[in-house]
Here is the input.
Amino acid sequence: MSGGWPKETPPDAGGFESYQERMEGAKIRVRSDSFADHFSQATMFYRSMSAPEQAHIAAAYTFELGKVTKPEIRERTVNEILANIDADLAARVASALGLAAPKPGNQQGKSAGKSAGMPQPSASPALSLLNRVKPGIATRKIALLSAPGGDGAMIRQLRDALAKAGAQALLVAPTFEAFDGLVPDATIVGMPSVMFDAVFLPGGEQAAQTLAQSGDARHFVSEAFKHLKAIGAVDTGRVVLNAAQLPDPSDGVAHGDAADVANVLRAFIDAAGQHRIWSRAAQAESVAA
Here is the structure.
């Protein structure tokens, strides 16, 4: 087929040809010492990460090693691999698994001796995703969480303001039942908070009571908080925040009266523009979601 192409181009047609060189003496095959270095690239990668990314890497190791049933394998991974990558990483994972933390420089394993004597790589900010995040809410997906009886005028005002800033605001409700001339774009169970970058509660007495009494709605808000997403609420929308039992005050949670919607929205947009509220991580640990 196709004349046998693709195939190698022969040398006489301009293809690759090994250079013919006369050799004398003993010819041996050796490998550079760098072949024994299994850790410097991993060290460079870990140390180039932002603090949240390093925490995620440690959490990922903890999660995977938590599935290992043999204690000696867990210990070997921490002491012979992670300790050779970074002492802080090894200590974090060891603590989370209930193991004794390796001492700094406690490098074991067959290749650790050669790797340990090599220059340590410097950090490269280009390897980090978070260090290159541009602030702003353009293209962000925002959930306007409401229900029948919601404040339609407020929902329209928020939707228009967020769209002007480049975000996509979707109305999320318990069902697709229309209210105040608005048809929900999605349901709470059909499009949970993990599908959004931030959540806003527009208010409306009846809607607030409906959402406050809904386990799905409370979980929607709690999960967004747990995942360090920006949350906003005006007027009776704050009732849902209280029902979700979120810590108050919290970074990245903007709320206020309906008359103060401009300031609340401004604070919300600033928080959502950070993509995640990393300073809230410690508080999020206390929230069930």
User: Anything to note?
Assistant: Residues 92 and 98 are 10 Å apart (CA to CA).
